Amino acid sequence: MTISVAVADDQALVRIGFCGIIAATEGFSVVGEAANGAEAVKVARASHPDVMLMDVRMPVLDGIEATRQITSGAAAAGTRVIILTTFDLDEYVFGALRAGASGFLLKDTLPADLLTAIRVVAAGEALLAPSVTRRLISEFAKIPPLGATEPTSSSLPRPATAHGATTTAAGAASRTDKVTALLTYRECEVLQLVTTGLSNAEIADHLHISPATAKTHVAHLLTKLDARDRVQLVIIAYQSGLATQ
Q: Considering the entire predicted model, what is its pTM?
């Protein structure tokens, strides 16, 4: 089965380089190129690539908004986005996660790692193994969900006031309880292993279960936690306190 890929980057040399590597490898095909975010959305809707490599900082429409439009619209359903970033802690990547990106690559990634990453994402998983990805996700996870009111400036619990204000620790415990109430003990174990970057096969080996059973547990996690993919599972695990750095 051939994996179709599109590349969006405003730097022509970078874009041509990625396309050349992909097109020269058996089992891959390049179905489109884009020099800005608006073009990326058009390519995704017209060519329906399995994977879109997306730069963050581009003219006309940035990679974050382009990612949101691609992942949230029916016109490009099935296309998964890998963010390309020059910096291993790019502030814009946090927004890209919320927009539905499935993973990250640094632009100095080795060709073999680029191809492996595309295969992983095309298979429905996320890029969690590289250390940079774990750092990005854990940093993102420090940002409270929209509507959250717990203070985040300190990890130390605040004393209750005369008005009965809750502490940071209490808020974190509440988020943990909400998640664990939805999951079985085994599913909590699997979620914690997902945050370490393990594949379904590696989770199965660690828990002494079959790969099919591990895959079923991950599918249940996605459904119960209303997560789009494994990246969002990791975010939920960090925000709920089930995973720590």
A: 0.66
